[in-house]
Amino acid sequence: MCGIAGIKRMGTDPITPEEIKILLCSLEHRGSHATGIAIETNGEIAVLKKDVPAWSFTASEACATFLRDFLHDDTNTVLLHTRAATKGAPYKNDNNHPIFRDNVAIVHNGGIRNDDTLFKDMSLERNCETDSDIIRGILDSNGLTHKGVRELNKMQGSAAIAAVKTGEPGSLFLARSGNPIILGSTETKFYWASELSAIQKAVRPWVKRFGIWMRGMTSRDVTYQPMPDHTAYLIGPEGLRWKQEFSICQTFVPAAYNMHSSYNSKQNMWQAQKKSDELQKNSKTVTILTTDKNEEKQEVTVCRRCKKGIAKKDPKEAWSKYICWNCDETLAYLEAV
Fold first, then answer.
1. How far, in Å, CA of 8 to CA of 20, rounded?
2. Sheet of 223-226: strands edge to edge?
3. Reported CATH class of domain 3-245
4. What pLDDT, on a 0 to 100 scale, did the predictor assign at position 284?
5. What number of other Cβ atoms are within 10 A of residue 336's Cβ?
6. Measured distance CA(198)–CA(186) in Å, rounded
7. In a 3-state reduction of DSSP, which class is residue 44?
8. CA 160 → CA 47, 119, 177, 254, distances in Å?
9. What is the mean pLDDT of residues 213-240?
10. With DSSP H G I counted as helix, E B as strand and the rest as coil, what are the percentages for the chain, rounded to 5?
């Protein structure tokens, strides 16, 4: 499971960097494998994401530069995500959220079981490995529309979704079936998050007393409400435009979040996968053995994994530069043979 959050400007008060950073860090315990932001201003979308926890992401120079360049007084909407990776390794940044390819940027908390089938049946093109990409694909194809929701209803799993679209300034799509979304508002801003406490932290005022900055306990004009389950909203510049049934989850059991204890072990696993991917990309494939009697006889050995015969194209090159043609086994171990 992951954490999603965001802010939509409904008046003249601008969205602030502090609100964004507090929301992200408040949801880090729900997902520490990657962090991301999407900003929609005047119908244009900018995205920044990285495979680091929220505390590191928000403290980075890259985040400061991104917010300085793309967060403006007239920014309409900000989408936020803290990822607990399931399908799709975080070191491949396309797998991280917000997912944005053509027109729609989405963030998702939950899991979709039939994404591979839907990509095939709907003739949609993948942008990344994660199951959440089917949401991006459907909304890219159908827009933030009633038809888009009907197509999303073909998914199986659970979801809390937020999305914005290029060319539609001020439009925000929210949907949930199973996974939680809490709504909050002031007179000039609309908030949503996976947990109420994240919104409460973001809206609490700062007060300078006796020369010291202190944090207020509450903000008097804030209201809260859980978003109804199995519902999709489209919210425009003036407020709610329409709502529709969105139901893909039969049963939902809230996850027990303990991201930090698994962070190092999962990062080590993904780093090993990354090194393996890089090795295979830079390695040469050994030649397939031939039975042609007219070809020059080559030195032959056998892969320890698949037991297939293998041979170097150049006998002078090291085995570490080769992988098995049949099973992709790295062959560096043959140096010691």
1. 11
2. 44-50, 34-41, 77-83, 3-9, 189-193, 182-185, 223-226
3. alpha beta
4. 53
5. 6
6. 15
7. strand
8. 19, 20, 6, 13
9. 89
10. 30, 30, 40
Tokens of 274: 């990354």
* 147 CB-near residues (< 8 Å, 6+ apart): none
Sign of CA dihedral 145, 162, 237, 182: positive
The pair of three-digit structure tokens given for residue 104, joined into one six-digit string: 């729609």
Phi, psi of 35 (to 5 degrees): -140, 145
76 vs 249, which has greater pLDDT? 76
The full set of domain ranges for the chain reads: 3-245, 283-337
**Cβ 274 vs Cβ 282: under 8 Å:** no
Question: By C-alpha distance, which of 54, 30, 21 is closest to 262?
Answer: 30
pLDDT for the residue 294 = 46
Q: Where are the beta strands (DSSP E) in the chain?
A: 3-9, 34-41, 44-50, 77-83, 99-100, 104-112, 157-165, 172-177, 182-185, 189-193, 206-209, 212-215, 223-226, 231-236, 239-245, 284-285, 287-288, 301-302, 309-311, 322-323
Exposed / middle / buried, residue 328 (Cβ in 10 Å: 0-12, 13-18, 19+) = middle
Opening angle at CA 54, ends 177 and 114, nearest 5: 30
End-to-end CA distance of the chain: 46
Q: Measured between alpha carbons, how far is residue 121 from residues 55, 139, 149, 152 in Å?
A: 40, 15, 17, 13
Residue 291 φ then ψ, to 5°: -105, 10
CB atoms closer than 10 angstroms to residue 191: 22
pTM of the model: 0.77
Count the alpha carbons within 13 Å of 83 in the hemisphere toward its beta carbon: 32
Q: In what order do the strands lie in the sheet with 301-302?
A: 287-288, 309-311, 301-302
Task: Tell me which H or E stretch contains 263.
Answer: helix 259-282
Contact status, residue 4 vs residue 160, Cβ threshold 8 Å: yes
What six digits make up the tokens of 42?
A: 């005047």
